[in-house]
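REQUEST ID: PR-0412
SUBMITTED BY: lab tech R.K.
PRIORITY: routine
TASK: structure prediction, single protein chain
INPUT:
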Amino acid sequence: MKLGREPGVVLDCRNNLGESIVWDKRAGRLWWANIHAGEVWTWDPFGPDTPEVFTIGDRVGAIGLRAGDDLVLALEKGFAFYDPKSGVLQPIGEVETDLPTTRLNDGRIDPAGRFLCGGMDEATPQRHISAVYSLDPDGTIKRRIGGIACANSTCWSPDGRTLYFANMPLRRIDAYDYDVASGEASNPRLFASLEGEPGLADGSAVDAEGYLWNAQWGGGKLVRYAPDGTVDRQVALPVTNPTCLAFGGPDLDILFVTSAWFGLDDAQRAAEPLAGSLFAFRPGVRGLPEHRFTG
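STATUS: complete
OUTPUT:
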């Protein structure tokens, strides 16, 4: 796989809504969700095989690696374990069953091995009625942050003491003090404003230097923010809707980016034949390994 400093297509997968990409360093594989198709995808970008696609039977908002070879998933209304080898889906617990227009949307495993995931309201107009939840290793589900319309950008500083999070319609990324031992997030404050920008803050990842990379839905670009929230770099993409990103490869020096054609009209889809594909490039910095769910 030949990669340069500019993003290029590495897999022409045309996902409706590719999301929640993670790199399993131990297995040397990528995992990601195709949300509205209810699919989990996996692929070794350095091997000869084509991607494997697993149909879950429910929309998958976010994916987390477990200590073994299976996954923890955020489904529409709750959490589940999934074993790709056997196809067994094991429900753990439900959330927001009293809110018919919401679903879980964005999440990541935290430094202590719990799964933090937030929801979104799919009604029009969108309301701030969902929340961020944690799935602890013992199976306990806790409500952590309320008043959410669309959760995104969940990631942590290298020391785990800062949680980055976006309530997407507010056009900002916030930083929280994060207690790794308890999973409590406190003291929210503005990290980066997207006011005046064409896009909204979608998925994020933090590199080994502590800089945050954000995929900007509707903006057709990635933005690298310094730890103080200033813009360090912008990287253009040939699609309007990049969705999420993950550092991968043996040296964690490749940035993989999912995208979507969801939300594009017919004219836009014709103008963006690569929408929904998987992109990659070498940004010149390394990433951090994904944490694993310890339950």
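NOTES: The chain has one domain: 8-293.
REVIEWED BY: pending
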